[in-house]
Amino acid sequence: MNDFLSALSMVSDPLAIVAVIAGSIIGIIFGSVPGLTFTMALSLVLPLTFGMPPNVAICLLLSTYIGGMTGGSISAILIGIPGTPSAAATVFDGLALARRGQAGLALGYAVIASGFGSIFSLAIMAVAVDFISQAAIHFGPVELFALVLFGMSLICGLSEGSILRGLIAGVIGLMIMTVGLDDLDGVARFTFGSTQLLQGVNLVVAMVGLFAVPHLIQSLVDYRLGRTPEANANDVKTQLPRLSVLRKNLGLMIRSSSLGTIIGAIPGTGGPIAAFVAYDQAKRFSKDQPKFGKGEPGGILAPESANNAVTGGAIIPLLSLGIPGDPATAIMLGGLLIHGVIPGPSLFVENKPLVYLIYLAFFFGTVAVVITQTFGIRLFVKVLKLKPHLLMIAIMVMCVVGTYAIRNSFFDVYTMVIVGLIGYLLTIARIPIAPVVLGIVLGPTLEKQFRTALILTENDYSTFFSSPLAVSLYILAIVFMGFQIYSNSKQRSSLTSPISPAKS
Amino acid sequence: MDRATDKKTAVVLILVALVWLWASISTIEIPVGSAEGPNSQTFPLLFGGLLGVCGLLLFVQASINIKHNELKSEKKTASPEELRTEWLCVGWMAGSLALYGLLMNLIGFVAATLVTILLVLTCALKIFERKLLLLLPIGIAIGVYLTFGKLLGVHLPVGQVINLGL
Question: I need a labelling partner for A199 at 20 to 30 A (CA). Which of A81, A118, A350, B81 fits?
């Protein structure tokens, strides 16, 4: 009880409240503008949290995350372009309802469903995290190595259809993180005599470079080639739905939120998968199937509750095991580490108030996002109308200021540019960025636990197969990769199979 | 077009892997007393080797006539003019970001922001509207200075050569 009260006092701090509101606004803005993402918002906001106390930083990051996931529905409904990939399924019925002159009601459905999904996943998160961390507290270096290896195998899920490209990206991320001082031997690696490189490539600098710089380059290219579309969104006011409609769809929202939480907890999956699976099950089990795609409330309530439930689900492996569920939680992992918070089983023993702080920040962040999006929709519509090339200039300034602010180092700014160029070249080569982030985040732990396990057993390699849990994780990793390879090849063969004649 | 790009990518990856392996062997010292078992060189060598293997696999994949590669590339091939513009933009953006960092060091945040935004507007975006050239740099510079410098306490550089005191 004392731990909970301590957390409550931390989240009630005036600065923390301001951070929650600011984070929700920033998240919604980045989520609602197509081309910007909440991952980019998190990578830009993260360096700015350095000077903040941990409670304020956590409130800012969590509300930005939730706001970003929720904000995607605004442009999906108003202009038919999802602000984030997670809002793609919302377009079908959201845009249809907007075209019938009920855009305000569609936004109301989206914001209520988003709030419901987030709170539902929070409840699951609070129970699951505690349970998993109790089990994980007995993990040694072998189990941790196996767990991280399993996490790395989920690169397949992030590899956008090509496992080879995902593997390339993951290896590049792993290579980037070997630069600097070796943790175990204290040997300098790839520093070439530079004292600044001794600290390695800063995680936040790499994130900003990988997520923001390619976007900046692409914005400039689109502008110069005349490919920038104008967003034509009319002014609108959010209209909250009737309670009777929500009661009628309560079962649907619970099912969708459950799906979203489970999918979010599996590293490598995310909002888009959850949203489409939820939409599909909503339509399949609906008595009004023909109405889907024409403005059916369930077509908005299902994907929006699912995609927001992903936020809580993704935090489960992050808090309990220290394994990020997606790039956004990978950035949040970076944020927690910077503030001296090491997620994983030991967190629940050493710093329980912080765990409760995260739960409370998640809750208040959700409330703030719902209120902000409901009453501030006119502001977000105005932001949607801003010209992308002008927004690009503001983001460019934030990139440089943010990376400089990390260590007051111009070296970090130049590193950001180089990593950003690498990110853009990877994009041209159709190599995904998300596995690079996974490699960067998990690489140090992978190496450290492997070498520690061998040091403790005097180089006895059989130790990696001595733990039943570790062996189970290896098998799971192989099964998961096999399943991904199978589903990718099935997808490819459906592309190459001859078109069957239409039935008359 | 996609297969040609994949082959070029594969060659670059193999070259990077070879350079990485050479750098791992020649620049990373193995501490005395750690002859057995993995050491500081092990994982860099492993990753470099993996990258090289992946590059080879990509080259082989691009060389074999796999239908799905061709079906997937519905993207229109860029014209030489578009490609030239794209690479110019890469140079512009990378150069602008690096220049911004350099100028911040020399003349401080506010002056560097004004100069860089003006350069980007006029040279990269070819915008010469007077109102925008005046308001946007000043608005962003003041906005960021007040929000990040004063409100959030982020340290903004003051400049080694020209110091405006801001």
Answer: A350
